[in-house]
Design brief:
Its cofactor is pyridoxal 5'-phosphate. Keywords: Aminotransferase, Pyridoxal phosphate, Transferase. By secondary structure, the protein is of the alpha/beta class. The protein contains 16 helices and 22 strands. The chain folds into three domains: 176 residues, Gcn5-related N-acetyltransferase (GNAT) (Aminopeptidase), CATH 3.40.630.30; 226 residues, Aspartate Aminotransferase, domain 2 (3-Layer(aba) Sandwich); 99 residues, Aspartate Aminotransferase, domain 1. The two termini are 54 Å apart. About 1% of the residues have low confidence.
Length: 534
Amino acid sequence: MNNNPLIFKVASEAWEFDAIHRLNYQTFVEEIPQHDINQEEKLIDKFHEHNAYIVCLQGQDLLGMLSVNDNRPFSLDNKLKNIDEHLPSFRSICEIRLLSIVSKNRHGDVLSGIFEKLFEFVINQGYDLMVISGITKQARLYRHVGFQAFGDLVGAQDVQFQPMYITLDRAIDFKKKLKSLNQNQTIFNYLPGPVSISKNIMAAYSKTPISHRGGDFMNDFSRLQDTLCQRLNTKQAYITTGSGTFANDIIAAQLSKISGKGIVLVSGEFGRRIEDHARRANLDYEVFVVEDGLAFTQDFLKQINNDNGEFRWLWMVHCETSTGVLNDLNSIREWCQQQQVLLCLDAISTIGSCTVDLTDVYLASATSGKGVGSLPGLALIFSSGLVSEVNCLLPRCFDLSDYIYAQGVPYTISSNAVYGLIIALKKDWDAQFSQVEKWSHDFRVKIEKTGLKVLAHENYRAPHITTIVLPEGVSSSKLGQKMLNLGILVSYNSNYLLENNWMQVCFMGDCQQVTEDAIKYLEYAVMSDVVSKK
């Protein structure tokens, strides 16, 4: 009994081709008599030199196969005239033939695995249409996979075949069905949140909670604060239950205690959210805006007149997540120092995703999720010095001086969330940032070769967020759903992305390099109407 696992691959070894010729003989000479008997009991296909073979192996046993050929004329071209007149428009076409499975292995695993490997191969090769001559008694099977019949039957009276085709989008739909049956199917997560989480972090959340007042916990909590401060070059780290939005509300509350006027910089959706925080906190401020997709430059900052010291603070996002623009923190910091303005930063999407130096940043916000790589649920606030003394007019959770007097833990906090964050911070950030920088550059180059536009200019792009501007006729919603069908999670469903017809690929958390499947399908989407707005 062969207990080896099933392997699906493109044939490459001499013994594999020998086995292919033997199975070809068994099927198309002995079982379906289309060729003459020979003593070698091998049948070498007439298109063999042009064929690629998708095979299922178990050890040294060949259990099934099919061939792929893109060299015309096809076998079907010789059986049916003008087949292109029956087909939908395409850019690159191939013919599928010689589907054959050893009789004792004609069960779902072998057949579905061969088709799944076929469609993976097709995507990588850039084909967007496949044709096949399906034996009539198996027509139902082909329809189940997604093939559609066209033209008249071909073949001899005793063995007839139905010409059929399948488009790339229907092939991807079939892959989706297979994924739903396989709970262990890998999904590539390129969302800004929730990000992929490592097993060690998930294990921390499954442990029995401990008291947030215990000595061991308080010691670990203090070391966590120190680690964050060292990583980010800041003096104080506050950790509380909440989201990144909650962290920004805390910053707004601190700014409400400072007399004088402030500046809010807006360059996209998340800058507008900062302005909303400031408005809800009834802060006194002015808004300065640049067009979505642009960064705040030194030349722009020079236009802000603060000669009379009117402005006391400046609040902005480090990375405008909606556009993938990374603002130059050094130039912003330099301007604030020259103008004696307190710099406040929304660093929610940058901390843990790229290098962040919070030196002389008065207040900054982050979260345990996103680039930091743990589950969301902890709000992080950082300061370059001590905040104002207790202010009883603030809600208790907003008063950072309370955290100082209580050694960082004035209120209940989840020990599981804290230990998950501790594990997340064990990752080598420098190595990850370098890797993400390379992945992001390679991805941008490949994307631009497909004809797609990346919104952020190369000079101020965020390495961890790529915002793609889709052509007018391509729907971001439909494309995002099709990518999901491929097992590739991209960001497209936020209102600001849908309104602008943008799509995002993000490298955050326990991330991976973008697959070739994703690149090929994006290219296909641009050149076809499979995800059109029609």
